[in-house]
């Protein structure tokens, strides 16, 4: 199930039960989800893959309540920490400043997208939002983010350091990558080894009422298309380096 729908359910549950925001929202739920994404991006980067389209819509929950990164249509492989690419792609509201500047960007662009994702999860709105694409780009390039005073210091500094406009100083940039993010105070009580081994009980696990009924034709996924024919090598070469 998509994380956006899950967040809506959880927020309604929190409001209904009058649960304190800081006690439940930050340190139990979203720290867990953010940590899942950190491990996912770490694995991708270690494999030489930059995702380039991380966003809420590309995060799904499995049956155990763990978050998964999906949709690798814009990802780029055989990519090292010091490599740079100039292809402008992704979702505008999640794209890092260096992508708009067309000066070359690297894996730090994924960590910027994580910062946008965390901001939306915690505050339920976009940090840079304008219907006019030019104004939106200008906001991403030059505007400072605004964070409410009630947001915890650890959550605020995590967002600010991930949304550093200079990729060289952004949290997670460089060879250290995800290790820098894991050491942030926001994750001070996170057991990363247990999370990687899926030994942590997720704060929200899908119930039967959340899962799509297999008996409802309207909820059925379309049949998979037949196996595609092998793509000729000359056509594959045309997309090398994308």
UniProtKB/TrEMBL annotation:
Cross-referenced PROSITE patterns: AGC_KINASE_CTER (PS51285), PROTEIN_KINASE_DOM (PS50011), PROTEIN_KINASE_ST (PS00108)
Domain Protein kinase: from-to ranges: 1-187
GO biological process terms held by the UniProt record: adenylate cyclase-activating G protein-coupled receptor signaling pathway; cell adhesion
Keywords associated with the record: ATP-binding, Kinase, Nucleotide-binding, Serine/threonine-protein kinase, Transferase
Signal peptide: none
UniProt xrefs under PANTHER family: CAMP-DEPENDENT PROTEIN KINASE CATALYTIC SUBUNIT GAMMA-LIKE, CYCLIC NUCLEOTIDE-DEPENDENT PROTEIN KINASE
Source organism of this protein record: Xenopus tropicalis
The keyword NADP appears for this protein: no
Domain of life where this protein originates: Eukaryota
GO molecular function: ATP binding; cAMP-dependent protein kinase activity
Xref: Pfam families: Pkinase (PF00069)
Organismal lineage: Eukaryota, Metazoa, Chordata, Craniata, Vertebrata
Stored Gene3D superfamilies: Transferase(Phosphotransferase) domain 1 (1.10.510.10)
GO cellular component: cAMP-dependent protein kinase complex; cytosol
Record InterPro entries: AGC-kinase_C (IPR000961), Kinase-like_dom_sf (IPR011009), Prot_kinase_dom (IPR000719), Ser/Thr_kinase_AS (IPR008271)
Protein name: Serine/threonine-protein kinase N1-like isoform X1
Positions of the AGC-kinase C-terminal domain: 188-242
Keyword Transport listed: no
């Amino acid at each position: 199930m998509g994380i956006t729908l899950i967040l809506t359910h959880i927020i309604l549950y929190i409001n209904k039960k009058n649960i304190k925001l800081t006690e439940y929202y930050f340190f139990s739920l979203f720290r867990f989800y953010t940590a899942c994404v950190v491990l996912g991006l770490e694995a991708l980067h270690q494999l030489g893959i930059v995702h380039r389209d991380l966003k809420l819509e590309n995060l799904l929950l499995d049956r155990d309540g763990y978050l998964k990164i999906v949709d690798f249509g814009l990802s780029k492989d055989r990519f090292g920490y010091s490599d740079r690419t100039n292809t402008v792609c992704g979702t505008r509201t999640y794209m890092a400043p260096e992508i708009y500047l067309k000066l070359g960007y690297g894996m730090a662009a994924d960590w910027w997208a994580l910062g946008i994702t965390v901001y939306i999860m915690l505050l339920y709105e976009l940090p840079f939002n304008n219907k006019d694409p030019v104004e939106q780009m200008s906001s991403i390039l030059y505007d400072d983010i605004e964070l409410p005073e009630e947001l915890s210091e650890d959550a605020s500094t995590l967002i600010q350091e991930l949304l550093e406009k200079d990729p060289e100083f952004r949290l997670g940039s460089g060879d250290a990558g995800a290790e820098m993010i894991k050491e942030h105070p926001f994750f001070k009580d996170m057991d990363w080894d247990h999370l990687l081994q899926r030994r942590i009980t997720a704060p929200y696990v899908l119930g039967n009422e959340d899962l799509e009924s297999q008996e409802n034709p309207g909820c059925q996924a379309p049949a998979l298309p037949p196996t595609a024919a092998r793509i000729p090598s000359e056509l594959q070469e045309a997309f090398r380096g994308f």
